[in-house]
Amino acid sequence: MSIADLDPVIHAPKRLGAMAMLDSVHNADFAFLRDHLGVCDSDLSKQMAALEKAGYVSIKQVGHGRSGSTTFKITRSGSKALKKHIAALNELVGEAATITQ
Length: 101
Hints:
Largest sheet: 3 strands, antiparallel
Shape: elongated
Low-confidence stretches: none
Number of domains: 1
Radius of gyration: 15 Å
Structural class: alpha+beta
CATH topology: Arc Repressor Mutant, subunit A
Number of helices: 5
Number of strands: 3
Strand order of the largest sheet: 1-3-2
CATH architecture: Orthogonal Bundle
Helix content: 55-70%
Strand content: 5-15%
Distance between the termini: 21 Å
Order of helices and strands: HHEHHEEH
């Protein structure tokens, strides 16, 4: 694996955090992700839209406004992409550790 194996869509810290959380749960609602990532509503919407566009998450919206709810779920391809990205990160970090020794 090399730096080329890093996924630029996932690599952004907020998206990486969201993907990691979604990979460990069945689904997560908007407020849960927003609060755990420490981002504002508009930022979370932007980050999740990028992940949806890549096919990495699915977004389910029910209702509108204050009575509405939005939930996110990682897709099968999103989970595979996350695992590949993490493997590339681990390998790069491991290689860096051997260079500095």
